[in-house]
């Protein structure tokens, strides 16, 4: 039987990775005081012990580097539900304004991709 860690490991989906990567600068700035957030994500099995060790090493160097490492771990191995858990943890950790911005960006990106998917292929018609 698979453990919660095994079920939650794996790459985040494309849209969610795009949203986090596009907001990386703001996230690094906003989440400087993130101890509670990182602990919440560990308790939700988004981060494992190895992730926490890497994140803590970076936090010791510089809070910005620690957040950047946490976001890289989230995108690379947090799993398909990681974005939703991240949003929940942001809300519970006092970063509701950040969660709201990410959710708006995610909705806009999803809508844009849906529109792109519905566009017909360009067909050139010979001039008459």
Compact overview of the structure:
With 128 residues, the chain is mostly helical.
Topology, please?
Layout lengths: L3 H5 L5 H9 L1 H7 L4 H9 L5 H13 L1 H15 L4 H11 L3 H23 L10
**Mean of residue pLDDT values:** 86
Taken in chain order, the helices and strands follow as HHHHHHHH
Computed CA radius of gyration, to the nearest angstrom: 18 Å
CATH class: Mainly Alpha
Q: Give the low-confidence spans.
A: none
CATH architecture call:
Orthogonal Bundle
User: Which structural class do you get from the secondary structure elements?
Assistant: mainly alpha
What's the helical proportion of residues? over 70%
- Globally, the shape reads globular
- The domain tally reads 1
What is the third-level CATH name, the topology? Death Domain, Fas
E-strand count: 0
Give the CATH superfamily.
Answer: Death Domain, Fas
Distance between the terminal alpha carbons, to the nearest Å?
66 Å
Treating each run of at least 4 consecutive H or I residues as one helix, how many helices?
8
Protein name: CARD domain-containing protein
InterPro entries: CARD (IPR001315), DEATH-like_dom_sf (IPR011029)
Pfam family, one: CARD
Describe this structure as you would to a colleague.
InterPro entries: CARD, DEATH-like_dom_sf. It comes from Patella caerulea (Rayed Mediterranean limpet). It holds the Pfam family CARD. One of its GO terms (biological process) is regulation of apoptotic process. This is CARD domain-containing protein. The structure is a single chain. This protein is an all-alpha fold and 128 residues long. It has a single domain, classed as Death Domain, Fas. Helices cover 72% and strands 0% of the residues. It is built from eight helices and no strands. The longest helix is centred in the C-terminal third of the chain and has 23 residues. It is globular, with a radius of gyration of 18 Å. The mean pLDDT is 86.
């Amino acid at each position: 039987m698979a453990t919660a860690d095994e079920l939650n490991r794996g790459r985040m989906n494309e849209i969610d990775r795009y949203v986090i990567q596009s907001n990386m600068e703001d996230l690094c700035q906003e989440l400087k005081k993130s101890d509670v957030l990182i602990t919440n994500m560990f308790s939700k099995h988004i981060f494992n012990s190895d992730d926490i060790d890497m994140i803590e090493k970076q936090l010791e160097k510089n809070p910005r580097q620690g957040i950047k490492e946490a976001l890289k771990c989230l995108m690379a191995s947090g799993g398909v539900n990681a974005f939703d858990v991240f949003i929940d943890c942001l809300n519970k950790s006092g970063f509701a304004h950040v969660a709201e911005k990410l959710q708006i960006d995610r909705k806009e990106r999803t809508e844009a991709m849906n529109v792109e998917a519905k566009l017909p292929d360009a067909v050139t018609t010979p001039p008459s």
